Each structure stands twice: as structure tokens, then as C-alpha cells.
Amino acid sequence: MVSWLAKHYSSIIKLDRITWLKRDYIERGVVYRIEPMPGFRRGSGKEIALPKPVIPRGVDASEILLTRRSIRSFKNKPVELGVLSSLLHIAFGVTKWEEGVYGHDLYPLRAFPSAGALQPVEIYVSANNVAGLPQGIYRYIFINHSLDPLKLGDYSKTLSEIALDQDHVAEAPIDIIITIFWARSAWKYGSRGYKYSLLDAGFAGENLYIASKILGLGTCAVGAFFEEELCELLGVDCVSEIPVLIMPVGYPSEEGWVF
Ligand SMILES: Cc1cc2nc3c(=O)[nH]c(=O)nc-3n(C[C@H](O)[C@H](O)[C@H](O)COP(=O)(O)O)c2cc1C
Asked: Is the CB of residue 182 less than 8 Å from the CB of residue 88?
């Protein structure tokens, strides 16, 4: 055992233990699904329909995975709205509607896997330099592939300050923020839903790396940020929904390819 870890981080170990599956839960038939399932996020009525995604074909998946790198330097070049639409669809979009799941006539499955298909991952877009889209922070409504405006204006500097002044967050034409609305997973899995939601978010983040490369863009996972400040910016409660990653996206500049 690594003794300093147990000494200093006993609360984390306790926290993780409460997510562990125990044989007696199964034997006792612990059931969580008492309340109604928290719903999918819907638009406010002001959402902007995204253009039809354009999906590049014939991409070499091995090449993409073997050459993926975190990109922290971007060209001062806008991203077209159509490219943003393709990016969101390839990374996070609905790829299949399944009939009769959890009492829904049609239930969404997405580009990344999700424990119990509960889809706790929510996506926010800070459009800093997107041709055809006013600057602002938007929620991606994945069930109808639209962007719901939350606040208009340039929030790139604010986001960068929240992310410990990391320059790539301020300079990127787009910052994608990944949150977990883990209440959805907890509905079925209790405390284990928290762990599952984080895993879902990891898959979503990797998808954004891959989708970015497919479209000639680059990105970088940014986990260093002040959670409470980001919750306040996004208008989420930091309880049922918690931010996990900020991911700046843009066209890589030459030096961006050198780490
Ligand atoms: C959970 C997580 C958090 C990270 N946080 C940051 C960060 O705050 N800032 C940053 O520049 N890179 C961050 N990174 C990117 C890593 O530094 C990067 O993945 C690592 O150096 C390996 O490089 P590669 O992605 O090019 O293989 C993070 C990566 C992960 C997976």
C-alpha cells in the first residue's frame, strides 16, 4: 500500500468506496429508480438549428489515433458554423434512436458510449470566433442538434481566467465545456452513477480529440479550472451538474504541433 496516499487522501478513498458495487446490493435488490428520470435538456425556444453536418468519409482511424496530440496553439482563423455543426455531431451527436427504452418511444444513443445509455454528458460551446454565429455561450441540445444561447458576448478571457489563465483557452475560436448532469445516472445507479458519469465524460472528451482531427482541427483537454466559477458562468448548480473539462478547439498553428 502507498501509505502517504491513504494518510492524506482518506476522504477520497471513502468517496470512491461509496461508488463500489457490493454483492449484497444485488442480493438485497437495491432499486434506485423511485423518482421520475431527470429529463433530457431541451431548448429554451430560442435555439439555433445547426446546419446539416458534413461527414468526411474514408478517414484512417488508426492514423488519427496514432498521431493524436494535445494542441495548445491555434491560428487566428474563424471556424465556420458548418464545421462546428459537424464537430458537435461527430463527437457528441445522436447516432441512433432506439425504440421503447426507459418508457420513451424513441431514446437517443450517441457517438460515445454511456453507462446504461443514460446520457449524463452535457456540452456547452463558447463561440469566440465562429463565422455565422454571434459570440456567446450556448448549450448544445443534442436531441435536436441545435445551440441554445445562454449569454451573448465574448467570454474567452473569462474562461481563460477561470482556467488559471491558460492562454490556449483564451486564443481558441471555440471552447467546448463538458459537464456531467450526473443526476441522470444516479437515478439508476445511485452513487455509482457519479463514477459512471465521469467515465462517460472521458469518452466524450476523446471523441472530441478524434472529431477535431477528422475535421483538420485540434484540441486539448483542460482539467485545471475553478469549478464554482465555471458553474456560475454556465448557470449550473454544481450539485446535480458539474463541469469536468474545458476543451479549446481551433485550427492548429505550426508550433501547435510541437509539444
Ligand atoms: C484529465 C486531463 C486534464 C488535463 N488538463 C490539462 C490542463 O489543464 N492544461 C493543459 O494544457 N493540458 C491538460 N491536459 C492535457 C495533457 O497535458 C496531455 O494529454 C498530456 O500532456 C499528454 O499529451 P498528449 O495529449 O499530446 O498525448 C489534460 C489532460 C487530461 C486527460
From this structure: no
